[in-house]
Design goal:
The complex is a heterodimer of chains A (about 300) and B (about 550).
Chain A lengths: L3 E12 L2 E12 L3 E5 L6 H8 L7 E6 L8 H5 L2 E4 L11 H11 L6 H14 L13 H14 L4 E5 L7 H16 L3 E5 L3 H7 L2 E6 L2 E7 H5 L4 E6 L4 H4 L6 E6 L2 E6 L4 H11 L5 E3 L3 H10 L4
Helix pairs in contact in A: 3-5, 4-5
Chain B lengths: L5 H41 L3 H13 L1 H6 L8 H27 L2 H6 L1 H6 L7 H27 L4 H28 L3 H24 L2 E2 L6 E2 L8 H6 L12 H19 L25 H40 L1 H8 L9 H33 L3 H5 L5 H33 L5 H30 L4 H18 L7 H4 L18 H21 L6
Antiparallel strand pairs in B: 1-2
Helix pairs in contact in B: 1-4, 1-7, 4-7, 4-8, 4-9, 7-8, 8-9, 8-11, 9-12, 12-13, 12-14, 12-16, 14-16, 14-17, 14-18, 16-17, 16-20, 17-18, 17-20
Classes of the chains: A alpha/beta (about 300), B mainly alpha (about 550).
């Protein structure tokens, strides 16, 4: 495991009697692209505000690059780029002015030529018009302002809070490319998202939170082990022969296909049986993140 | 649930407006009614003696700065005296209430996108404006009724009280029209409110200048105003001469102005898109100017237009102070009786009449400067609630530094307003060919106003740190209360300790060498202490 960039344990945040965070653990190693998942109101944005030193934790410990994000906010922010989910920009500043202002505040424009060329490239990639006034931009375009400002300046840690919720699919692809670029350059990324395909494609590890505490964390691979694999094939073999399949769960026939689920480690034992049954149009699907997600989101916390 | 027909839709829209504004309108109406009541009872208590009142009225007639700040003298009878003292401010209250109301239900709705939601129903684009007119007229009438009740409760004659109420309401209706028209031009509610407030300020000044330059009657107890007063809705309403002439005819001018504005509004709305404005949106810069690189620069970039507006207000006040002083001195030179009356208001043998006049006028500049400072702190809060503070503080900008930048900007803004007033006053002195020594007095009078404005800046910064959600409401309330106690405290007979709460009660009166600056020094100490505590506590304050 690499050196830790974000380390939070037992994090709590109370607003009066409401517990927004209730013992949250989050660990992100250097150079990692970390997915941060949870239903609305689970505490993702509260966690991010604490990481940015905009709010103070009520209990628990949290460090960013080994330092206190509340006390050392200013020094830490030189190394951090942040994209909020609901981007607010100044209504009477143009998009171009806002991008430059944020870049300068972040101290990322000292190499002016590099900054200008990166900015111009990103404006081109995101097909963004920087001359409009802030109030004239749609949600997606406001998000582009924050994304361009974040990616135009170098940073060691990118904190992105549902950064693509207003972007069209083409722009999402541009965003994915930028995440891969900064990850390849060695930066760490904390990506809070609801778009599971995005997390599956980009993230090395994920943390799933719910009602203010962590319910699952690990690599996607390790998380997938927690859920069964789904197997299906065209209906044909007799019901009697189907009973020969070992360890099959939830076996049923629907829409002309036989479906069942099976634990990952039992799959090698099942495949020869399926071969002997002469099944056709066989599909073996690993558990999608969506299933993981639904499993954790849907259950009432007990 | 919905019944067909425009009337029921209109009813729903009007009810929605009434529901949304009920507390706000109640506060405006009750506080204006109380202002009328306290003025009536205060004058009766403080100036109950007829001869004393006549003496004060003669003094006022001779003093343009009093006329400008109060009204048009119509004799020394008690009811007419009350009307002279307070009516302009009752009218201003109604004008601001109606102007803000108009923008709140028109441009602000369009800006937020809510208007689109409503326009997609059968209300369409026109009916919401009709509803706003109905609602605004009703609110103005409510405020007028409160004024009439206040006067009646204060023991004034019913007929005159009703005329006063009608005059107050008519000013509200006029500025309802002006506000709605401003909303057609500006792209933002902030812009529309600025246009509306500027129009109200101009109306106040035109009335004030018209009264200040008016012609006194032979007994020097009443006046006929000069023509500028006839260009102002507040002037028209004042020409009803409540408690003396009781003539409602001038109010037709107010209604005519409102009708013309509202007709223009419907004409414009018939041809423009929802959300669009008559003043087009300019294209922005492709990249930021090199100086836009920190939170102070950003605060300046965001606020310079409003600071320029406040400074313009200071310049107008200063210009009046400098040039009116000349008018009075000129009049006194040819009229020994007037000269004697004027000399009686000068508290110190070393001071001159002109110094007293300039100092009194600069009290207004002080209120303007404090208003500018309050707006700077409120802007800070708006950055926080609007979400635009978050990206700043997520960059390498500390909370304390952020607050400090806004405080520095506040000091700069206050200085600009007062400097503008002082320079304009100096220009007025030069143009009217007065004693050049008055130029130094103008700068001293401006400097005397600095500490009170700084107190507002510091104290509101402390409010922002401790009670952020109250920043805006408390800011304007403190300014209104402070200027009321400072200007009217003695008039309404407010107890000394209460008057002492207002920073404006401690503002030094600049009278050349005999000026007592100790009040200003204490105010400065309070301002610095409040700002320091705010900065200290900001270290521990979260963004919320």
């Amino acid at each position: 495991m690499n050196a830790s960039v974000i380390e939070a344990s037992g994090l709590e945040k109370r607003f009066g009697r409401v517990r927004a965070l209730d013992g949250l653990d989050l660990s992100v190693g250097a150079g990692e692209v970390h997915g941060f998942l949870g239903p609305n109101g689970a505490g993702k944005s509260t966690t991010i505000r604490i990481l940015l030193g905009l709010a103070r934790s009520s209990a628990g410990s949290v460090t960013l690059f080994g330092r206190d994000p509340w006390r050392d906010a200013v020094a830490l922010h030189d190394r951090v780029a942040y994209v909020p989910g609901d981007v607010s920009i100044w209504p009477n500043l143009s998009g171009g002015e806002t991008i430059d202002l944020l870049g300068r505040l972040r101290g990322g424009t000292t190499d002016a030529r590099l900054y200008e060329s990166r900015k111009a490239g990103l404006i081109e990639l995101f097909q963004f018009d920087p001359t409009k006034k802030g109030r004239a931009y749609s949600k997606g375009n406001r998000q582009k302002v924050a994304l361009i400002a974040a990616f135009a300046t170098p940073a060691e840690l990118y904190i992105l809070d549902e950064p693509t919720s207003g972007l069209d699919p083409v722009m999402e692809a541009v965003f994915d490319g930028e995440i891969r670029r900064v990850a390849a350059e060695g930066a760490t990324v904390l990506l809070s998202s609801h778009i599971l395909s995005e997390v599956e494609q980009l993230c090395d590890r994920v943390t799933i939170i719910r009602a203010g505490s962590t319910v699952e964390t690990g690599t996607l691979e390790s998380l997938r082990h927690l859920t069964r694999i789904e197997v299906s094939f065209a209906a044909g073999p007799s019901d009697a022969s189907l009973t020969r399949i070992p360890d099959a769960h939830d076996l049923h026939v629907a829409g002309g296909r036989v479906r069942f689920t099976i634990d990952d480690e039992r799959l090698p034992a099942v495949l020869p049986v399926l071969g002997s049954l002469g099944v056709r149009a066989l599909v073996v699907e690993p558990p999608s993140l969506e299933e993981l997600f639904l499993r954790h989101y849907g259950d009432p916390k007990s | 649930m919905s019944t067909p027909g425009g009337v029921s839709t209109l009813g729903a829209l009007v009810r929605q407006r009434a529901r949304r504004d009920r507390l706000q309108i109640a506060v405006w109406a009750v506080s204006t009614g109380l202002l009328a009541l306290t003025a009536a009872t205060g004058v009766a208590r403080t100036y109950g003696d007829d001869a004393e009142r006549a003496g004060i009225m003669r003094l006022a007639v001779a003093n343009p700065s009093i006329l400008l700040l109060r009204g048009l003298p119509q004799g020394a009878e008690l009811p007419a005296f009350v009307f002279f003292q307070i009516f302009t401010y009752l009218a201003l209250m109604c004008a601001f209430m109606a102007g803000f109301l108009a923008v709140r239900h028109s441009r602000a709705e369009e800006e937020s996108g809510r208007a689109e939601l409503v326009a997609s129903t059968r209300a369409a684009r026109t009916l919401p404006t009709v509803a706003t007119v109905v609602h605004g007229v009703a609110a103005s009438v409510a405020l007028g009724v409160a004024v009439a009740l206040g006067f009646v409760a204060g023991g004034l004659p019913v007929a005159g009280a009703l005329v006063s109420g009608a005059a107050t309401a008519a000013v509200g209706v006029a500025f309802l029209g002006v506000g709605l028209l401003a909303a057609q031009f500006a792209r933002t509610s902030r812009g529309a409110n600025s246009i509306g407030a500027a129009a109200i300020g101009v109306a106040f000044l035109l009335r004030g200048v018209g009264d200040a330059l008016g012609t006194p009657s032979d007994d020097r107890l009443s006046m006929t105003s000069a023509w500028p007063s006839w260009l102002s809705p507040i002037g028209w309403a004042q020409h009803t001469g409540a408690f003396t002439a009781d003539d409602l005819a001038p109010l037709l001018l107010c209604l005519a102005l409102a009708t013309a504005c509202i007709a223009a509004v419907f004409a414009v709305q018939a041809s423009r898109d929802s959300g669009a404005s008559l003043l087009p949106e300019r294209i922005g810069r492709r990249a930021a100017a090199p100086w836009l690189s920190g939170s102070f620069a950003l605060a300046w970039r965001l606020q310079w237009p409003s600071i320029a507006g406040w400074t313009l207000g200071g310049v107008a006040t200063g210009l009046l102070a400098g040039s009116l002083a000349g008018v009075v001195i000129e009049a006194a030179r040819t009229n020994p009786e007037l000269a004697a009356t004027l000399q009686s208001i000068v508290p110190d043998a070393d001071a001159s009449v002109a110094q007293v006049l300039i100092s009194a006028m600069f009290a207004i500049a002080g209120v303007v400067a404090a208003g500018c400072a309050i707006q700077a702190v409120i802007r800070l809060r708006q950055e926080e609630t609007g979400g635009t503070a978050e990206p700043l503080l997520a960059a390498r900008l500390g909370r304390v530094h952020w607050l400090a930048d806004y405080l520095v900007l506040g000091v700069v803004a206050i200085s600009l307003v007062l400097l503008g007033a002082a320079l304009a006053s100096a220009a007025g002195v030069l143009v009217s060919g007065d004693d050049p020594a008055l130029i130094a007095d103008s700068f001293a009078a401006a400097a005397a106003q600095l500490p009170a404005a700084l107190v507002y800046l510091g104290v509101l910064a402390l409010v922002f740190v401790l009670l952020p959600s109250a920043t805006s409401a408390l800011g304007w309330t403190l300014l209104a209360a402070g200027s009321f106690l400072g200007i009217f405290g003695a008039l309404v007979g407010a107890p000394e300790w209460l008057r002492d709460v207002s920073p404006f009660s401690h503002t030094p009166v600049a009278l050349g060498t005999s000026t007592d600056w100790s009040g200003g020094a204490w105010l400065a100490v309070v301002a610095v202490a409040a700002a320091s505590v705010a900065l200290l506590l900001m270290r521990r304050r979260e963004l919320r």
